[in-house]
Model the fold of this input.
Amino acid sequence: VVTLLSLLPGKTFSELEWSIPHLDKGVHFGMYFILAVAAGLFFCAEFNFNTKVKWILILSLSGYGILLEVIQEYLVPNRYFDVWDILFNITGVLAGLLLSPVIKKYLELWNSIHKH
Done:
């Protein structure tokens, strides 16, 4: 979903952006937040979610966001490289990975309450 939304032509979103200024920055943060939470939950469940794994996720997800911005600049009509988009991508990644252990505990509590 992140790749699809990032690589759609720019005119796809032009009407929305005029109605809510800087909406795209919130979308960038939200997409990468959800992506990072999903990755964090997976690694919490499958592996030891230690500092090394967190750094690998931070670097790989942030690198992915930077790569998509570069691709937008050169291959997607009416889309451009934007440093602010990268900043919001990385902020979403950091927030998502920071909160994924908290979300995991909440989900475990929710499941234990609703099993009975």
About this structure: DSSP finds five helices and no strands in the chain. Helices lie at 2-7, 14-19, 23-46, 51-75, 83-114.
